């Protein structure tokens, strides 16, 4: 029969090896990389916001011109107001996207700094087996 001390040592070594294998096989967290059309979503959203502003302004101007009988006055005025509103919403979207981008960069730098210092990031996933 085998020595009980040797069996426990072997069992501990096996557990250590299994843990290392699990760490190596665990998926590593990766930052979302921009794809080929990464900015297309933002661009289309901005185009739609601008178009919607102009369309709403056109509809309101046309309706008011029909109501008051002043054909091009309200139409022209509200097209310009719709354009201005669309541009304003576009700028707000761009500012929001910029804030999200800066937050992602700061988070990535924080995770990268933790890995460089030998600490694991909050979600785990060190560089074992890399």
UniProtKB/TrEMBL annotation:
Residues 121-130 have a biased composition (Gly residues). Residues 1-34, 94-130 are annotated as: Disordered. This is ATP synthase protein I. The chain crosses the membrane at residues 42-62, 74-95. Keywords: Hydrogen ion transport, Ion transport, Membrane, Transmembrane, Transmembrane helix, Transport. GO terms for cellular component: proton-transporting ATP synthase complex. Pfam families: ATPase_gene1. The lineage of its organism: Bacteria, Pseudomonadati, Pseudomonadota, Alphaproteobacteria, Rhodobacterales. Residues 23-33 have a biased composition (Basic residues). Belongs to the bacterial AtpI family. The keyword Zinc does not apply. A possible function for this protein is to guide the assembly of the membrane sector of the ATPase enzyme complex. Residues 108-120 have a biased composition (Low complexity). Residues 7-22, 96-107 have a biased composition (Basic and acidic residues). One of its GO terms (biological process) is proton transmembrane transport.
């Amino acid at each position: 029969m085998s020595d009980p001390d040797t069996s426990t040592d072997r069992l501990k070594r096996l557990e250590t090896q299994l843990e290392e294998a699990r760490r190596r096989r665990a998926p590593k967290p990766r930052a979302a990389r921009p794809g080929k059309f990464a900015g297309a979503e933002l661009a289309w959203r901005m185009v739609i916001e601008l178009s919607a502003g102009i369309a709403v302004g056109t509809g309101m101007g046309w309706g008011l011109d029909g109501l008051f009988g002043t054909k091009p006055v309200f139409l022209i005025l509200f097209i310009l107001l719709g354009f201005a509103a669309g541009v304003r919403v576009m700028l707000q979207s761009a500012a929001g996207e910029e804030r999200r981008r800066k937050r992602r960069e700061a988070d990535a730098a924080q995770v990268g700094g933790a890995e460089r210092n030998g600490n694991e990031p909050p979600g785990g996933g060190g560089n074992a087996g890399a």
